[in-house]
Each structure stands twice: as C-alpha cells, then as structure tokens.
Specification:
By secondary structure, the protein is mainly alpha-helical. The protein is built from eight helices and no strands.
Length: 211
C-alpha cells in the first residue's frame, strides 16, 4: 500500500467519528430497509449536489452512518425531513439560508460541507455562503432571506426570538412560513447535535457524491 493509500484509508476510518462505519453487509430488517432507502434517495441527491454521502465500499458517512445504530427512529426522522421539504412554504434558497445559519451556530463540519454544496446548487454565491457560515449578513442577500437568517440565528443561537424579529419574519413569510422555518431549523439542530456529539468530520472528496 502506498503512503497516499494509507492516508486515504486512515481518513476514511476517521469519518465515523466516535462510532464505527457500519458495514452494509451486516444489515438486516429495518437497517437493510433504511440502507436501501439511502441508496435510492440520499446518495443520488448527494451526487447531484456534489457532496459525499457514501464511500466506494458502500459504507455511509456523515449523519447517515450513525442512523444505523437506531434505524427505526432514524427512518421516522427522515420521514419528518421529507414532509418538511415536500410541504414547506420556504423557497430553496431560503431553506439553505436557514440550514447554513443553523450550521453557523453549531459549527458541525459535515453539515456545513454538505450544505455549502446544496446552497451552490440553488444559486447562492460563494461569498454569500461564506458570510452565512460566519453568521454575518451577506450583502447580496434579499431582505426576506436576511430576515430568515436573523430569525434562525435568534432561535438557534440565543434560543429566543425578539418581537421585532418575529414580526418582520411574519410579514416576510406568514405564519406557515414561521412554523416551517422552526421545523427546518429543528431538524438540522438534531443533525448537528448528532455530528458534534460523535465528532464526525467532513470528507476530502472528489465532489461526485462518493469518496
């Protein structure tokens, strides 16, 4: 094995953080069902956006790997995320503003890595993404999305939303939009807490959905 191969193998072994990377050959029952779902949905979506969710040997990485420790609960959580993304009043760019603003508070490397790719795909510029990750208002962002950023940083960072921020958000997105924003931020707080508690890192990838 060359030194480059040794380094790559060592890096792959670090991607599970405090959990092992689970071998899909060992899956049965609900874990196998969850894995098949990931192969048909999560991996192609990651490929399309340009981030890695699965290694070449089929092992999942990021927040997806630890889901196999409790596949029934993980499946229910993914169901909530699917319901959110399929029924939200928020546009694609606004959703990424909320997700990256949540990541700005939690500093979870994989979440910021994956949603930098997702944000680029929906048209946010590199400068805008970098400002969102720093928790700063991007000059290029429209007023509604700046309001979404302020709301998310208040909710996630300070755990309180001031009256003026709330009313500005209601004017921009309505009551359904506020509810949807809270659920979206909550979903990604779960993801970020999982990533941070397990010390899961971001990969060094080739940008095609696999490492």
């Amino acid at each position: 094995m060359t030194s480059d191969q040794t380094h790559s193998s060592a890096h792959e072994n670090d991607l599970g953080g405090r959990f092992p990377l689970y071998d899909p050959a060992s899956f049965s029952g609900s874990a196998k069902t969850l894995y098949d779902h990931a192969i048909s949905t999560i991996v192609p979506e990651a490929h399309k956006a340009g981030f890695t969710a699965m290694l070449d040997d089929g092992r999942m990485i990021g927040p997806f790997n630890p889901m196999f420790a409790s596949p029934d609960i993980a499946t229910a959580m993914l169901g909530l995320q699917k319901a959110e993304s399929g029924n939200t009043a928020l546009g694609p760019a606004t959703r990424q503003v909320v997700i990256l603003s949540t990541g700005a508070v939690w500093r979870a490397p994989y979440e910021l890595y994956a949603h930098t790719a997702e944000a680029r795909m929906v048209g946010l510029s590199s400068e805008t993404i970098e400002a969102l990750i720093r928790g700063e208002p991007p000059p290029e962002l429209g007023e509604a999305d700046l309001t979404a950023q302020r709301f998310t940083l208040a909710l996630v960072g300070r755990r309180q939303v001031e009256d003026d921020v709330f009313e500005a958000t209601r004017r921009a997105f309505g009551e359904k939009g506020i509810f949807d924003m809270i659920i979206l931020a909550g979903c990604y707080q779960i993801i970020c807490s999982l990533l941070n508690a397990l010390a899961i890192t971001a990969p060094q990838d080739r940008g095609d959905g696999r490492l």
